[in-house]
Design brief:
The complex is a heterodimer of chains A (162) and B (70). With 162 residues, chain A is mainly alpha-helical. Chain A has 6 helices and no strands. Chain B is built from 5 helices and 2 strands. Classes of the chains: A mainly alpha (162), B mainly alpha (70).
Chain lengths: 162, 70
Amino acid sequence: MFYIRSTKDTHKARPISVRAARAATVFALIAYPPGAFLLAAGGGLPARLAGAALLLAVLGSAGMLATTWVQRIVGELPQYLDEFEMQVRLRAMQGAYMTFTLLILGFVMYSALAADTQLWVPRTYRAFNALFWGVFLYAWLLPTAFVAWRIEEDEAGQGARP
Amino acid sequence: MNNRLRVLRAERGWSQAELGERLGVSRQAVNAIETGKHDPSLPLAFRIARLFGGAIETIFDDDEAGATPR
């Protein structure tokens, strides 16, 4: 959804292999919830340190994808993409929208159940802060993940855009 | 849809990137068209035909061309 352009040449994107893009998206999406929970749940110092370390790794993975061709497909202005890239973007957005909607629905259902049982629900500013950045990260990376997992290595040309 | 894009490109000794540059599309788009994973739009098909100096039907072949209309 967001694409950070290079200030030197807005039409060039950084190369990354499909395998690396897949690993980076999956790691960031899977590691964020436990990292944020450890940091926000108010546990001891070791737990918070472990949470902070996980979140740093998530930031590193997400940062690795910024300005790459994978991120460019989902975030670049439409007039700078060709018809094939637009088709890939559209498919990725459809998949990401479905997944995002299911996650939100799942969270609402969990919140409803948690209100009646003694399960954890966000109540503090820190917890809502973690939730906000989680939603932000998922909105940003889910389309990228769909591009990375749907495109094949030969289509990507070993990650290098011409 | 089948096409002769790879053959025509090879005849001229162009890489996918070079052809993409001439057509104003990415190398990935050229690869997707050559492998049949993406059917080009009509404007792009015309650009391709013009570049290779032929008619669209000499480059692209509809799978159902020989099928009897229902």
